[in-house]
Amino acid sequence: MIDTAPAATAASIKAAHQDADSASLHLVVRDRRLVATDMLLLCLERADGSELPAYGPGAHLTLHPHEGARTRYVICVKLEAAGRGGSRHVHANLLQGTPVRVSPPENYFPLDEDAAHSVFIAGGIGITPVLCMAAHLQALGRPWELHYAARSPQYALPLEGHALAPERVRQYFDDRGEKASFDAILANAPRGSHFYCCGPQGMLDAYKRAAEHLPASVVHFESFGATDLPTASDSITVKLARDGRVFQVPASQSILDCLRAGGVELPFSCRQGVCGACETRVVAGIPEHRDMVLSEGERKANKTMMICCSRSRGGELVLDL
């Protein structure tokens, strides 16, 4: 049986491909269980059972599925039929005993433990990070509430067994005609609340519209899947402000991949504009933002950009690299 205690479910998952490095963790699938339609729960451990790196609520793992105290990570992977193949590989091939390489936990969706009140909104597989956040706040005795939406109970991660206070949780299922009102959820929250949302793009868009009147510092969100990025039709010119090098980025290549091919060492993870790892300061030029990390205000300011997916609106881009 997989240990599904709240402390173990903090590791949400984004399947990705990334170069191997010395920090990678070589783990083994100790157990696996289908917990809902298309949702696979995996328990990952070191072969010798030794302790794993720590993580905070809201953290995720970057899983490299095509390679083969705190002693386990429990992650949930949704089968995305129209995805890039990573989730299909996990569901079909990561059987018990299979070796798997992951990068250490990273957190681009941190929790503010000191908020007067925390409101969590999740859709489908997006429950994984906020479930751990809610459990963590409950253990600290801090106030919180959770709103969880899914197509039907069969497509929802079961919340039983996580010892969450049931009076703080409300679920919404499309097949029952139930729909969450983000305007109402935000309006009814106590003064000083922080808000967290993780789910599909449609949910995030509605959440952001409802939260436009709130300070950006209390509005938090993360996506588990990028929207389809428009295909670039032209090459762009990117200059590095620190050493003066100039790169012609072809339409078929991202800024991130072009710079890395040219020998520039850069941090990255998802390569889809959803994690924020490659955020880079813009010195000059106007980015064409295609990420799902920056707020509308941050996009208009054009001070930073996600170079894994965003482009240029014309002219040369100068980056602080």
Describe the SSE topology.
Elements (H helix, E strand, L loop, with lengths): L11 E4 L9 E12 L2 E7 L14 E5 L7 E7 L7 H8 L5 E8 L10 E7 L3 H14 L3 E7 L18 E5 L8 H6 L5 E7 L1 H10 L8 E5 L12 E5 L5 E4 L5 H7 L17 E6 L2 E2 L7 H6 L2 E3 L4 E2 L4 E3 L2
Parallel strand pairs: 1-4, 7-8, 7-10, 8-9, 10-11, 12-18
Antiparallel strand pairs: 2-3, 2-6, 3-5, 4-6, 12-13, 14-16, 14-18, 15-17
Give a quick set of tags describing it.
single chain; 321 residues; alpha/beta; 6-stranded mixed sheet; 5-stranded parallel sheet; globular; disordered N terminus
Mean pLDDT: 83
The protein's oligomeric status is single chain
Helical stretch tally: 6
Poorly predicted regions are 1-22
